[in-house]
Automatic annotation (TrEMBL), chain A:
The keyword Cell membrane applies. Its main location: membrane. It comes from Paraburkholderia metrosideri. This is Cation:proton antiporter. Keywords: Cell membrane, Membrane, Transmembrane, Transmembrane helix. It is a multi-pass membrane protein. InterPro entries: CPA3_antiporter_subunitC, NUOK/Mnh_C1-like. Belongs to the CPA3 antiporters (TC 2.A.63) subunit C family. It is found in: Cell membrane. The chain crosses the membrane at residues 6-27, 39-64, 84-105. Pfam families: Oxidored_q2.
UniProtKB/TrEMBL annotation, chain B:
Pfam families: MbhE, MnhB. Keywords: Cell membrane, Membrane, Transmembrane, Transmembrane helix. This is Sodium:proton antiporter. It is found in: Cell membrane. Coiled coil: none annotated.
Length: 124, 231
């Protein structure tokens, strides 16, 4: 299938667009939960970008089996390093999100609201 | 209004940066030298058909250990953050009973839960042969636990047992790492066990073992985190 654009470029555009949407959401929303969702969207977009940078034209998954012989692997496998790094990044993103959510619960318990405008103590 | 204009300005500036990156990006035509080494030497040295798992568990095993440590710290800190208000704010909530789960969720859980857990176990132990591995399988198991908690809001998870299981998995993981240091090339080197036949279930040295430990650890940790958020 030919779309004119290379696959990795399409993925890069998708990932960066997601990141921009997330950034816009983080900057404009005043509800803490929505800010956290914005962060998660940025995270996902950047994961897509990272995976996309490992794609090689016409490449396939770096798993040696009947479809990809050892001798063929050097030519046809995609770069496995970004994929391995993204597994790490996903887990760290999940961890950060979990900590942010628990802080949100604490903040809600303190002020009974999730609007970030209510938390003026740490404003400069 | 002013704030939105600033936000729009920042987003547009980022968009320009990203646009330049996309414009200047050339799709790779061949592997980078390090990647080529991993792809060519990885299956020969480690005996694992899935190169990503080989990198994750052996070449970058130390990173993975750090990542597991981060997960452990998150489980601990979420527990710390959500524990204290359980005495004050929770007591008001505790009075009204939790709403029962719907019929669809309950029946669906009975059908799906065994399948989800089996699939999670499959993904964990086949990490060295096909797409999958400890983290992915652990997340699937935790999603099954999530479904169970949704279907039975009154059920309690044995957090103490899960913590013990998780700690033991972590200790054995480090112990295997030290075994690799003593018997093979370095810390977390999986080659101290026989490599076995390429592509067989029992192959690739200690990689399936480490993968299973990671799966148990991640599954237990995520379940504990889910349970803490529920209270």
């Amino acid at each position: 299938m030919t779309t004119g654009l290379p696959v990795s470029t399409i993925l890069l555009i998708t990932g960066f667009c997601l990141s921009l949407i997330g950034l816009w959401g983080m900057l404009t929303q005043r509800n803490i939960l929505r800010i956290i969702i914005g962060f998660a969207v940025i995270d996902t977009g950047l994961h897509i970008v990272m995976v996309a940078t490992g794609y090689i034209t016409g490449g396939t998954a770096p798993i040696i089996d009947s479809a990809l012989s050892k001798a063929d692997a050097a030519r046809r496998a995609i770069d496995p390093i970004p994929s391995a790094l993204v597994v790490t990044a996903i887990v760290i993103g999940l961890s950060v999100t979990a900590v942010m959510l628990s802080f949100a619960i604490r903040l809600y318990a303190a002020k009974k609201t999730l609007s970030i405008d209510a938390f003026t103590e740490s404003k400069w | 209004m002013m704030r939105r204009v600033f936000a729009l300005l920042i987003v547009v500036l980022f968009a320009v940066v990203f646009w330049r990156i996309v414009g200047g990006y050339q799709e790779l035509q061949a592997l980078r030298p390090l990647a080529e080494h991993y792809v060519v030497q990885g299956p020969i040295e480690l005996g694992a058909p899935n190169i990503v798992t080989g990198i994750l568990i052996t070449y970058r095993g130390f990173d993975t250990l750090g990542e597991v440590a981060v997960l452990f710290m998150v489980a601990a800190s979420v527990g710390l953050l959500l524990k204290e208000d359980s005495t004050t704010a929770e007591s008001a909530d505790q009075d009204r009973p939790r709403r029962e789960a719907g019929e669809i969720v309950r029946t669906g859980t009975q059908v799906l839960l065994p399948m989800i857990l089996t699939f999670g176990a499959y993904v964990i132990v086949n990490g060295h042969l096909s797409a999958g591995g400890g983290f992915q399988g652990g997340a699937i198991v935790a999603s099954g636990v999530m479904l169970m908690l949704l279907a039975r809001p009154g059920a309690t998870l044995n957090v103490a047992l899960l913590s013990v299981v998780e700690s033991f998995a972590g200790v054995i993981y480090v112990f295997i790492g030290i075994l690799g240091l003593v018997l093979a090339g370095g810390f977390l080197d999986a080659r101290f066990l026989p490599r076995g036949q390429f592509g067989a279930f029992f192959s690739a040295g200690a990689i399936p073992l480490i993968s299973a430990l990671l799966g148990v650890k991640v599954g237990a940790e995520l379940s504990v985190i889910l349970d803490r958020f529920r209270s």
